[in-house]
Here is the input.
Amino acid sequence: MDKVIALGDVTLGEGVDTWNTIIFLYNSALKEVQTKVEILNDEFQQVHQYNPIEYIKSRIKSSESIVKKLKRCGHDTSINNMVNYVNDIAGIRIVCSFTSDIYRLAEMIGRQNDLTVISVKDYIKHPKDSGYKSYHMLVTVPIFLSDRTIDTKVEIQIRTMAMDFWASLEHKIYYKFEGNAPKYISQDLRECSGIVSMLDAKMLQLNEAILEAKAAQEEEAGAV
Here is the structure.
């Protein structure tokens, strides 16, 4: 049986070949996790006639972003530090219709036997000071190579369309100010985050009312 090792335990060099190998592993991990999520979505559609996922996005963090994050966190720039300290190199964003879908999907993902959940950060129940809301899971997925199996980290972000809209605009705004936006802009963004939460709650309430009304109609039709 092939030895299973974590990517952070692999002895790494610093050359171009090593960089390409690491990116290959992260890309492979993205494919594995995205396929699992798509299968879960298809199964949910088959069983419940409903798709909890609106769309999925995946990306590998750029080398420039990795270097910036390492420096911001006080680490030297090296491939070993990149693997050990930057957990979101491989990232998948799952966008749902309703907040209830987020926790349902997180539970389904957590039950996958060959995924290991390393950590969970619930920024929906506990938003960041900026107003950012999303549900984050850090998982490892085994990548089966010809001579060994390497557990590779992937960060999964699950959010509603409204949360994704806010986060995308917030990122663009702060990018323009390089993270130093004026105080009144930060305050307005937090207020917009509150509006997004109200919208999500209202849309969830409306969806539940629609389902109840539909069930009542079907019950009445069956009684005739």
About this structure: The chain has a mean pLDDT of 89. The radius of gyration is 21 Å. Strands lie at 4-6, 53-60, 90-96, 116-122, 135-144, 149-160.
